[in-house]
Amino acid sequence: MTEAPDAMVPMAVQNDLRNGRKLLETMEPQQRLAWGLDQFGDRFALTTSFGIQSAVLLHMLSALKGGDAVPVIWIDTGYLPAETYAYADQLTHQLKIRLVVSQSKMSPARMEALHGRLWESGSVDDMETYHRIRKVEPLEQALNDLDTRCWASGVRRGQTDHRRSMTALDRIRERWSLRPLLEWTQRDVYYYMQSNNLPQHPLFEQGYSTVGDWHSSGPDVGDLSGRDTRFGGLKQECGIHLPQDAVEGLMGEGI
Of 12, 15, 9, 44, whose CA–CA distance to 178 is shortest? Predict the structure, then answer.
């Protein structure tokens, strides 16, 4: 099927997108990372959550020539489990990551005073407000501060309904978004970590297949697994990987 042109995106950008996708289709994940670094240089970044499967992409980056100079953006919501903070410290030192921590300008205490404990209301709107304040806006600030043109992430197609429609290279909020691991399965991730002797997130042994904030994550139980365990079952996506129009609706509300 021929992809319809997007009237909002200049034709030159659409051509670059099509050419980039065609080239990346034939590449292995680490080759995709190397392509991103080669194409964008010091305007290339990587994002991480220091979640269950984050070690894979971080390890691939550490093996690249010049990978130690690539900024790795971590959005610290202020509500992460203690195990995630410890795991982040471990991987940062082990893999010699150039870590860039970004946080909301609004402290957790101030947010709760003004908006309440947004994750407890059972409202999708409240959860989206939470994600905008604690995740989307801090990421955009970090990308702006670093003058990033392309950022890579460890998203995989099988994780959410939205991610099934992703390609290896997309435009998100006026930047290129590179997905080196898009086609990988949970099994691919597990065996890569085993063969490279990478440490597992501490919560993996407690049955977590994905982990985010302490109040909105849980272990796999019965038929509930993967991203369905996140955000009280209200959502699968926090907004970071959503297209421009979806995020504009969130960010247009202001803090």
Answer: 44
Q: Which of 173, 240, 248, 170 is nearest to 14 (CA)?
A: 170
Q: Look up residue 235 and give its DSSP letter.
A: -
* Tens of pLDDT, residues 169-224: 988 888 899 999 999 988 999 999 999 999 999 999 998 888 989 988 888 776 65
CATH homologous superfamily for the domain 11-251 = HUPs (3.40.50.620)
Look up residue 216 and give its two tokens: 């909105």
CB-CB contact of 251 with 132 (8 Å): yes
Catalytic residue among 24, 152, 238, 240: 238
Radius of gyration of the chain measured on its C-alpha atoms? 18
- Tell me how far apart the terminal alpha carbons of the chain are, to the nearest angstrom: 41
Q: What is the DSSP letter of 32?
A: H
User: Tokens 């970044």 label which residue?
Assistant: 45
Residues 6+ apart with CB under 8 A from 134: 75, 77, 78, 79, 104, 111
Determine whether 150 is an active site residue.
no
User: Token pair for residue 197?
Assistant: 């002797």
Please give, one letter per residue, the 3-state secondary structure of 99-113: EEEECCCCCHHHHHH
pTM here? 0.84
Distance CA 29, CA 235 (A): 28
Domain ranges (residues) in the chain: 11-251
At residue 91's C-alpha, the angle toward residues 238 and 107, to 5°, is 45
Question: d(Cα 45, Cα 42) in Å, to the nearest integer?
Answer: 8
Which of helix, strand or coil describes residue 249?
helix
Q: State whether residue 73 is helix, strand or coil.
A: strand
155 close to 181: Cβ distance less than 8 angstroms: yes
